[in-house]
Amino acid sequence: MALKTTGARSWIYLPLAILLTVSLFPFLWMATSSFKPLRQLYAVPPSWLPDPATFANFEKVIFNSNIPRYFLNSTIISLGSTALALCFAIFAAYGFARFRFRGKILAQSFVLIGQMLPTATIIVPLYFVLSYFGLINTYLGLILVYLILTLPLSVWMLTSYFKGIPRELEEAAIIDGASRLTILFRINLPLIIPGIVAVVLYSFVATWNEFVFALSFATDRSMKTLPIGLAEFSSEFDTDWGAVMAASFIMTLPIAIIFLALQRLFVGGVMSGATKG
Amino acid sequence: MARPLAPAAGNLADESRPARRAFRIGAGPLFILPTMALLAILILYPVVSTVILSFTDAAGRYVGGDNYAAAFRSSSTIRVIFNTIYYVAGSVILQLVIGVAAGILLNQKFRGRAMVRSLMLIPWVIPGIVAAMTWAWMFHTDYGIVNYALVSLGIIDQPVGWLTNPSTVMPALIAVNAWKMFPFVAVMVLAGLQSVPEELYEAARVDGAQFRHEVWHIMLPQLRPVLVAITLLLVIWGLDGITIIYSMTGGGPAGRSMIFPIQIYAMAFEFFEFNRAAALSVVYFLLIVGLIALYLRAFAPQEND
After folding, report:
1. Domain tally for chain B?
2. What is the pTM of this model?
3. Which residue is closest to A254 within chain B, CA to CA?
4. Residues 14-53, chain A: which have Cβ within 8 Å of B?
5. B185: containing domain
6. Which B residues 133-172 touch A at CB under 8 Å?
């Protein structure tokens, strides 16, 4: 993509340096802190680089805390909800993109509102529903509840991808007598694989970071997700900041790698449909 | 939104075969039905149920507006409303100002631009809880790098308890939230600037325009539709933001950083006042709808031209 710009300027390097410092410093500080031995973390004046670098903080997090379990819980729940949302969203998005029917605008508005609704407003009744079905502190409970985040998002994004496929491709298949489902799976799906990848990544990140639902519906130590575990980690360890930074580092790695490797895809996706923060 | 169907497309082979037409009409709703049913259970039912709960007591008896009255009698609710608006307004304004500046900056030509654009995304990319934990460590009163830097530079005389001092806690949290989200604004601004016709800049330069004139008279007006759209998103995300505040201060000190989502959570799962929590949810929801309506009324008409 060729980018238009407005000419080179020399004053630009000062604001650029400030921008880079502000963007990067906290991340770098977290990374270096996670490798620092205890006495260096609590040293005044602070030392910039760990000397010597130590893995003690990581060892503590991996072998001496519940963080690995939380990591597993988060992975299962995020993958489960992402996959489930995708199964439903493919059909719904195809329906929205290809058909005209009564109430379509209403249904689409409902999906959009669902995406915008602040999650904290519905935690009380959701808690009752989950209790009724015995789903508090279960993977299935959070997977289902996370559909509130992932499903509207997936439907919305996939609809725009389906709309980008020329209708003529389907017409030939219709004449040949192919069923709607055949057309969807044989003709459309292969063409929107980039869209599906984007949706999967978005849903995964959204659920990986989710806080309110996890806080309310997964209270058992064995069922908590990473964000909650990390938030409570500080008090659990009497705020061992080296360990907290190491755990933060571990939690960031998968997300950071996904984002940097697929940056273009992500940025493109943001422009085609907004996501829940 | 409804895509106008080309007359030929979609009607293929339908005219002479009524059975086929019936299939065509029925298929759309069939495709969306499972999703809509799920969303009805997961979103519509809880919303309706919240309203009902807010008018009943723990035993399910109708109590009129008692839960609301209790909510508004408590001084904490008023402070929560104030804090929420303060937090969201402060965050969104900062996010927009920094984000627009960064977007314009990254639209200039310079060496390593692609690299800088990627690196700038880091705050937005890292999980919210990680940002919160990192900043909590940086804001640490005794060993935090923020206090060290500010004291060394002579900006403050002695360390400040950023997250424990009632007068600094909200600005500190707003700064973290702004830091987290400004790259999103910058990315959208960058995208918006791509569609500004080069002729506008050329014409301005012929007239002797400086860079600041270009920013003020070309870029910002051209970015207006983008900014209107993302402001709404930023407001909604800000209102939904619980991660940063809950994990950094838990709403403290003494409720000074308590915002609606945390108050609802605490009311329900710490005090087990489910009906009052439901009433708070409804108030919160109405506040949001009101803000969005005001916003759309102020900005939507200009979007049509």
Report:
1. 1
2. 0.85
3. B126
4. 15-16, 19-20, 22-24, 26-27, 29-30, 33, 41-46
5. 66-304
6. 133-138, 140, 142-143, 145, 148, 152
| Per-residue DSSP letter, A122 | G
Q: Where are the alpha helices (DSSP H) in B111-256?
A: 113-120, 122-125, 128-138, 145-152, 169-194, 198-206, 211-214, 220-240, 243-248
A137/B contact by beta carbon, under 8 A = no
Q: Is residue B53 part of a domain?
A: no
Tell me phi and psi for residue A75, to 5 degrees. Answer: -65, -50
Residue B280 covered by a domain? yes
Give yes or no for a contact between A35 and B129, defined as CB atoms under 8 angstroms apart. no
Q: Where are the domains of chain A?
A: 65-275
The structural architecture, per CATH, of the domain A65-275 is Orthogonal Bundle (1.10)
**Has residue B29 been placed in a domain?**
no
What value of ipTM does the predicted structure carry? 0.84
pLDDT in tens, B258-302: 999 999 999 999 999 899 999 999 999 998 888 888 887 877 655
Residue A250 contacts residue A58 (beta carbons within 8 Å): yes
Angle at the Cα of A132 from the Cα atoms of A127 and A136, rounded to 5 degrees: 50
Q: Taking the alpha carbons of B183, B185, B191, B196 in that order, is the dihedral positive or negative?
A: negative
Q: Which residues of A touch B285 (CB under 8 A)?
A: 118, 121
Q: Which of A45, A97, A118 sits opposite B239 (nearest CB)?
A: A118
Q: Report the alpha-carbon distance of residue B70 to residue B84 in Å, rounded.
A: 19
CATH number, domain with residue B200:
1.10.3720.10
Alpha carbon distance A83, B158 (integer Å): 52
Is the backbone peptide bond immediately before A227 cis, with ω within 30 degrees of 0?
Answer: no
pLDDT band at B211 (very low <50, low <70, confident <90, very high): confident
Strand (E) or helix (H) holding B103: helix B75-106
So what's the pLDDT on residue B13? 40
